Amino acid sequence: MQDRFGHRISYLRVSITDRCNERCTYCMPQELQEWLPREDILSFEETIRLIRIASELGVSKIRITGGEPLTRRDVIHFFRLLARSTNLRELGLSTNGTLLSREIEPGLTMAQAVRDCGFNSVNISLDTLDRKEYARITGRDLLPAVITGIDSAIAAGFPQIKLNCVLMRGRSEHALTSLVDFAAERNLLLRFIELMPVSTTEVLSESNFFPVAEGRRVIEESLGPLLPEPEFRTNGPATYYQISGRNQRLGFIGAMTNLHFCENCNKLRLTCDGKLRPCLGSYLEFDIMSPLRAGASDEDLRQFFLDVVERKPEQHDFRTTYQPGRKMVAIGG
Ligand SMILES: C[S@@+](CC[C@H](N)C(=O)[O-])C[C@H]1O[C@@H](n2cnc3c(N)ncnc32)[C@H](O)[C@@H]1O
Ligand code: SF4
Fold it and tell me: 15: closest CA among 280, 308, 294, 303?
């Protein structure tokens, strides 16, 4: 699949729930949540059918996200079905890490069960190592569970584990260096993400915004020069740097300040309520659940995907007119 601007679409992010066991200020509004009713959420079978169709159209990488995907009931059953019914090159999970170390049966952690389903990558959110600060950001005092979750993921042997930290002024200044050291100790790839306007809370104000360039400056002040690595890319939009004198690489996702951010976009998103979104930072979304439930053939659904790709915008609207419509938690970041 290729869009009007030459983007080859090979990556589908699939949100399987709008629910979460945390309440990150930049993602979820603090007011009482209204979860979607169960019948409005794609079933596992429906989700797998759409993933299979996408893979027939050239999607080779899937990332399961949410909300918090590991809170969905029977999620491991879903992962096993997914692994059995599709043949994807890369299977990834985005998680807040809080449930990775939970034993789902004696001697089997959630992390190990996910790995055993063939997942090769896991992205874990971690904004700070200060327990009080973590609780302030996420609304839950779960930092110790996240740390053991990260260690469970390491023990499970995922080939790729990334830590993702959202940057915020007033907080990141103090948190960055210890996060870099933590990632170095465990030999994990750490990435810093600029705050995007995808929640309704006042947290997304100009004064809280902390650009990736400033993050690099803070790190350089304590750890020395960062050397750009323009040749190094993963499948995502991060740019990478090496810390001089250390064998450690850091990623920076400058969704707001990097004007080339959208150039290599290869993504589509599927929300848990069955909307295909061609871009995170655009209002556009297309209801694929209705035709799916009305008996559409595989061919109809393939055409639906192609039509959505045809409408993929050249770049996101975050810098111009964008006002959050759907919250991040309901899109799947
Ligand atoms: C929506 S979460 C879903 C998966 C999982 N619950 C987690 O926290 O990793 C996916 C990613 O989006 C990021 N995110 C959420 N809101 C954001 C915002 N307003 N700006 C930038 N990144 C955001 C989170 O930090 C997380 O790394
Ligand atoms: S960022 Fe992830 S953990 Fe935090 S509220 Fe959003 S979905 Fe939940």
Answer: 280
As a whole number, mean pLDDT of residues 39-48 equals: 96
- Judged by its nearest atom, the ligand closest to the C-alpha of residue 142 is 2
Which atom of ligand 2 lies nearest, measured to the CA of 166?
1
Nearest CA to ligand 1 atom 16: 27
CA–CA gap between residue 307 and residue 302 (Å, rounded)? 9
Atom number in ligand 2 closest to CA 21: 8
pLDDT band at 116 (very low <50, low <70, confident <90, very high): very high
Residues 333, 198 contacting (CB under 8 angstroms): yes
Residue 306 half-sphere exposure, CB side, CA atoms within 13 Å?
A: 9
Indicate whether 32 pLDDT > 70: no
Please give the distance of CA 25 from its chain centroid, rounded to a whole number. 16
* Average pLDDT for 195-203: 70
d(C-alpha 270, C-alpha 327), whole Å: 14
Binned at pLDDT 50, 70 and 90, residue 35 comes out as confident
Judged against a pLDDT cut of 90, whether residue 44 lies above it is answered with yes
How does 38-48 read in b/e, with b if 16+ C-beta sit within 10 Å? eeebbebeebb
What's residue 131's pLDDT? Answer: 97
Burial class of residue 162, CB neighbours in 10 A (0-12, 13-18, 19+): buried
